[in-house]
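Sanity check

After download, print the first record. It should look like this:
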Amino acid sequence: MPLIAKRIRIAHAVVLLGTATPIWLATSAIAPQIVRAYTARVDLSIDRLPEENYETLLQRAEAAARAAAQRSFDQDILVTDVSIFISVQNNGAIAPVLELAVTRPQWRNRPDPRRWAKYFKAARSLLYFGENSTSPTATTNQTAK
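Expected structure tokens:
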């Protein structure tokens, strides 16, 4: 009797494995696993250098955005989208200058931050750049007189 019970157990295991494996393969083929992809969000802040004009500041912001996007894609293979905000500080004023939003295929085809960046036009005046804008210290001195 023990020999028959042993053979029944082996036959039972073979039947279970023989049916479970094809069923698992069929469900995997019909409903594949969900890929866990996500967006990497990076917020960077840079300070204005002395005697730096707005165009040079934008070039530095673009370079920082490019490096952050490349670093985000390189560090994690599951990142499908990158969203980068670059803010600038100038004499105590802080304003967002650009936003870089790009997908991995877009970045792979054309890794140019100027192509994918959105520039905030109000940043120039908020940061006291331009001909018509005055610095906050100049405004304070004029009102004090």
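If your output differs, re-run the checksum step. Summary of this record's structure: Strands lie at 38-47, 79-90, 93-103, 117-119.
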